[in-house]
Amino acid sequence: MTQENGIYVCCSHVCSGWWRLSYIGDWAIAGCFVLFSSLIILTEPRHLDLPFPSTNPNVAYPFKQDTIPSWASALYSYGGAVAFVVVCMPFMRSIHDVHNAALSMLYSWGLANTFTAVGKVFAGRYRPNYLDMLEDLSISGDSHKAWDGRMSFPSGHATVMFAGGTWMALYMAGKLKCFTNKGGEAWKSALCMGPLMAAWLGVLTRTRDYKHDFSDILAGSIIGACGAFVSYFCYFRSMFDKKCHLPKVRARFGVCIDHCPNVVPERFKKNKKKGTN
Q: How far apart are CA 206 and CA 222, in angstroms?
């Protein structure tokens, strides 16, 4: 692979644009994760034996309305991420950056929610307010509440909010070059912690509303953060790269141009011809 007038030539194919057909597969995989997580959550969770069901103190907490509804956590996570990208658009002026950000967000959403949905159905853990939910069920007749009462682990709110909060923190850190040799400043890292603090406060309301134990929100937070890390670094450069604010450039065969061993700077080639190193 060589460079001629700013255009990469790899195996006799010109790779001038950032778009590659392999991105279609990435979108399909991310979409499949989203679809699978949406379907699996509709499955009845595993039924666990509950010791002393009528008097068990672990499931006898009172029922309370959500401080942060599901739609609000999704709005913060994905609406906030979209807002971050929109704010950066005038500075980046790159469709490539917008594309990779959108694909990364969708992949993060699908990947994290799939792990959480499978965990909820497989674990079948009772919510702290399960008994109160059953009393309400006898009045309303809503059978879905009986299922939802056995989907405590891991927390879906924590997954969604930390997937979005971690992704926003990473995106901001990359654009501000927080971890490069010349970019480390306290105000930058403190600013990047804002989305994580908002996510942390949001998930703590799940224990105050008696919807989850602390282990539920801890597991959900870890899943969401891991999903954001995996998806972000699939499409954006390392935080220690001097060009960490830019998206990765994919070659024809799925290899990142910036790290392809066949990419030799023109300056090095000229020096090599002269017998220097």
A: 16
